[in-house]
Design goal:
Layout lengths: L4 E3 L2 H17 L3 H21 L9 H7 L3 E6 L2 E8 L3 E9 L7
Parallel strand pairs: 1-4
Antiparallel strand pairs: 2-3, 3-4
Length: 104
């Protein structure tokens, strides 16, 4: 089984933290926030073995912002945007709201 090294920059971790904080405090749902956090971390762990299964996205805005080989994996109304590089590294570029992606 092919394995990838997943790189999660601090900016993406900050985006996840903001998302979790919003759920916990604005919606007053700390248990839901905890479950979402666990699910998000599982998605990141799963990318170690499944990153190549998500198809390359040909959306103009994604390719313009992240390159020709951009991929995404969705979670609720959010999306991890990532690329796989030649050295089998998966670099997560962003964790954003799906509605922020244009041209879908």
């Amino acid at each position: 089984m092919k394995r990838f090294t997943v790189i999660v920059p601090q900016s993406v971790l900050n985006q996840i933290d903001q998302y979790i904080y919003f759920i916990a405090h604005e919606y007053e749902a700390p248990l839901t926030a905890y479950r979402h956090y666990d699910e998000l971390m599982q998605i990141i762990r799963n990318l170690e073995t499944t990153a190549h299964l998500n198809s390359i996205r040909y959306t103009e805005s994604l390719q313009r912002n992240y390159g020709a080989f951009v991929r995404r994996v969705n979670f609720k109304s959010m999306t991890f945007v990532y690329c796989i590089y030649a050295n089998d590294e998966v670099y997560i570029h962003e964790f954003i709201a799906q509605k922020m992606i244009k041209d879908e």
